[in-house]
Each structure stands twice: as structure tokens, then as C-alpha cells.
């Protein structure tokens, strides 16, 4: 799935393992490339860390003042190492396409695919 996504033109493709550091790395990479506009989630949620649940909740609800993701059941859903303005930029920049739990033999585990869709206009955000 990952190789196929990259060959088909995806900017990035891979798995998301944790609801904190994994999400922080995803956010930093997406914000660093304003051409990434779509995020496709597919496969099944991996029980335990629940990073996909945390990602969906982050995009829908954001974080509280302590940078804990609102409305997720993930145990480690905190983003302590990223400025709040970067988190907000990520939420505005991408459109989530949620295909979790769809039956597809090529997408058995939870995967992320990031697609370009024209540059996101940046105003006053420092480079991360």
C-alpha cells in the first residue's frame, strides 16, 4: 500500500504508531510542506495507542490549554512539543478523508497517505 501510494503520486505514505510523538512528527512534516492538503486514513485502528482516533479527534476538536487532544480515547494524546499555532495551521491546511475500517485487501493495517492539492497560503508562520 505504501509503495503503491508513493508511485501514484502521494507526497508521503506510512503508518502512524503513537498518538503523541507520531502525531507530532506527522504535523511537523505536513506543515513544512504547504502543498500537502489531503490526509487519507485507511485500514483498521491498531488497539492500544489509538493514534488514528487521536488524529480524527485532533482535527475535529483540537487541543485544550494543556495541549491534550480533546475527545479521544487514546491514552497518550498530548502534543507537548509543538506550538499551538502549528497545530492550528495543520488543522486548517489538511482535509481528512477517513477510510478507516473499509474493507480493502491492499490496506489491512492503519495507513496514512498525504496528497498534494495546491499550496496552502502561509501568512506569518515561522518555519518549523
Secondary structure: elements and pairs:
Layout: H1 2-7, E1 12-14, H2 21-32, E2 36-43, H3 51-61, H4 84-93, E3 95-100, E4 111-116
Helix pairs in contact: 2-4
Describe the protein.
The chain has 128 residues and is of the alpha+beta class. It has helices at 2-7, 21-32, 51-61, 84-93; strands spanning 12-14, 36-43, 95-100, 111-116. Helix 2 packs across helix 4. The longest helix has 12 residues, at 21-32. It is globular and about 40 Å long. The model is unreliable at 123-128 (pLDDT under 50).
Please summarize what this structure is.
The chain has 128 residues and is of the alpha+beta class.
Task: Give the SSE string.
Answer: HEHEHHEE
Structural class: alpha+beta
Q: Low-confidence segments, ≥5 residues, pLDDT <50?
A: 123-128
Tally the helices: 4
Estimate the helix proportion, in percent.
25-40%
Strand content: 15-25%
Q: In which order are the strands of the major sheet placed?
A: 1-4-2-3
Total tally of structural domains: 1
Oligomer: single chain
Protein traits:
single chain; 128 residues; alpha+beta; four-stranded mixed sheet; 4 helices; globular
Amino acid at each position: 500500500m505504501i509503495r503503491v501510494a508513493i508511485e501514484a503520486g502521494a507526497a508521503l505514505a506510512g503508518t502512524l504508531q503513537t498518538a503523541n510523538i507520531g502525531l507530532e512528527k506527522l504535523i511537523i512534516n505536513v506543515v513544512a510542506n504547504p502543498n500537502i492538503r489531503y490526509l487519507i486514513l485507511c485500514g483498521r485502528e491498531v488497539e492500544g495507542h489509538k493514534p488514528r482516533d487521536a488524529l480524527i479527534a485532533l482535527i475535529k476538536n483540537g487541543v485544550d490549554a494543556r495541549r491534550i487532544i480533546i475527545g479521544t480515547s487514546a491514552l497518550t494524546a498530548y502534543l507537548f512539543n509543538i506550538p499551538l499555532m502549528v497545530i492550528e495551521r495543520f488543522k486548517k491546511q489538511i482535509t481528512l478523508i477517513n477510510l478507516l475500517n473499509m474493507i480493502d485487501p491492499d490496506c489491512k493495517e492503519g495507513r496514512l497517505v498525504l496528497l498534494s492539492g495546491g499550496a496552502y497560503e502561509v501568512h506569518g508562520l515561522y518555519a518549523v
